[in-house]
Automatic annotation (TrEMBL):
It comes from Chitinibacter bivalviorum. It comes from the Bacteria. The gene is dusA. Catalyzes the synthesis of 5,6-dihydrouridine (D), a modified base found in the D-loop of most tRNAs, via the reduction of the C5-C6 double bond in target uridines. Specifically modifies U20 and U20a in tRNAs. Transmembrane segments: none annotated. This is tRNA-dihydrouridine(20/20a) synthase. GO terms for molecular function: flavin adenine dinucleotide binding; FMN binding; tRNA binding; tRNA-dihydrouridine20 synthase activity. It catalyses: 5,6-dihydrouridine(20) in tRNA + NADP(+) = uridine(20) in tRNA + NADPH + H(+); 5,6-dihydrouridine(20a) in tRNA + NAD(+) = uridine(20a) in tRNA + NADH + H(+); 5,6-dihydrouridine(20a) in tRNA + NADP(+) = uridine(20a) in tRNA + NADPH + H(+); 5,6-dihydrouridine(20) in tRNA + NAD(+) = uridine(20) in tRNA + NADH + H(+). The record marks N109, K195, R198, R311, R314 as: Interacts with tRNA. Belongs to the dus family. Belongs to the Dus family. DusA subfamily.
């Protein structure tokens, strides 16, 4: 069992092993969604995709339950810890802790527009304080050897001129950051909810493309509104990587094409049942340690998205009564019901070809 400061020695960062794939495809940090249970599920679907934690406040790491906020499974590599904070000394301490726990990257959130985050003086509002961000990045880089990256927007409120994000990136690059994840929308700090901030401000992918042209030596990763493999491949003609958010959560099976289409690996023959069976050891170990199945089940509801049986799968694995004290047998039962229903459907079609 890891102690409060570091995980087991077996959980070394891939950075030290020089085995990291590129960040050509990443899953965005999403609060309440990209916890360790979702990330372990996503890793079963793609071996190469970069995974990001939910944003974790520096205060929660320094003064809270480190195990709760930092724990991850070794299979999740490559994995990045996203930090929310603005105090350089705190960011530095957390970057060192991230390295000690085995993370491959530590990412600074300079993109979240929520008012709750703003009240803590971090997130997107920090784009208005590039000197403070630069100080934080430099302190983090001095404190650790893993990659330090920044995720940001292209503008704040009515600041829409490209020069704003260009100057911001240039200033932070001078502090030593070489990887920027660009959510290609403005952040509206007042008047829009976080959800509305993901949809209403117009996407300006050309700003991210121009950043790559202006800073060819930087790694530029584009984020915002990307939902298909075709869109991903199109963006990769202009930038170094793509970060996908909610589509990867609600329709996770899209991840099964990433290793072959984006990373050039041989395509793996995967089935949805096989995916769940591969996760069985992990799931049963979590259940044995006291984790309720509902903590895991909520992240796999999209496994059959767009497929026959999707509604049945979601209904069984979100039923509070069925989930109470449930174990692996509930997942097995859901899989079996889908397969039985599909067999009856196919038999019916054979008997009535009209």
């Amino acid at each position: 069992m890891p102690n409060v400061e570091t995980q087991s020695e077996a959980k070394q960062p891939l950075a030290n092993l020089d085995l990291k794939p590129s960040r050509r495809f990443c899953i965005a940090p999403m609060l309440d969604w990209t916890d360790r249970f979702y990330r372990r599920f996503a890793r079963e679907l793609s071996q190469q995709t970069w995974l990001y934690t939910e944003m974790v406040n520096t205060g929660a790491i320094l003064h809270g339950d480190k195990m709760r906020h930092l724990r991850f499974d070794p299979a999740e590599h490559p994995i990045a810890l996203q930090l929310g904070g603005s105090e350089p000394a705190d960011l530095a301490r957390c970057a060192k802790i991230a390295q000690d726990w085995g993370y491959d990257e530590v990412n600074l959130n300079v993109g979240c527009p929520s008012e709750r985050v703003q009240s803590g003086s971090f997130g997107a509002c920090l784009m208005l304080e590039p000197n403070l961000v630069a100080d934080g990045v430099k302190a983090m880089r001095d404190a650790c050897q893993i990659d330090v990256t920044v995720k940001h927007r292209i503008g704040i409120d009515k600041i829409e001129d490209y020069s704003f994000v260009r100057d911001f990136v240039g200033h932070i690059a001078d502090a030593g950051c070489s990887t920027f994840i660009v959510h290609a929308r403005n952040a509206i700090l007042k008047g829009l909810s976080p959800k509305e901030n993901r949809d209403i401000p117009p996407l300006k992918y050309d700003y991210a493309y121009q950043l790559k042209r202006d800073f060819p030596n930087l790694e530029i990763i584009i984020n915002g509104g990307i939902t298909t493999l075709e869109q991903t491949q199109s963006h990769l003609l202009h930038v170094d990587g793509v970060m996908v958010g909610r589509e990867a959560y609600h329709n996770p099976w899209i991840l099964t094409d990433i290793d072959s289409a984006i990373y050039g690996q041989a395509h793996r023959d995967q089935t949805r049942r096989g995916t769940m069976e591969n996760l069985r050891v992990f799931i049963e170990a979590e259940l044995a340690s006291g984790t309720p199945l509902r903590f895991i089940a909520r992240h796999i509801l999209g496994l059959y998205q767009g497929q026959y049986g999707a509604r049945q799968w979601r209904r069984m694995l979100s039923d509070a009564t069925l989930l109470k004290n449930a174990n692996w047998e509930l997942i097995e039962s859901a899989l079996a019901q889908i397969e039985n229903s599909l067999s009856h459907r196919e038999a019916s079609n054979l008997n009535d070809p009209s």
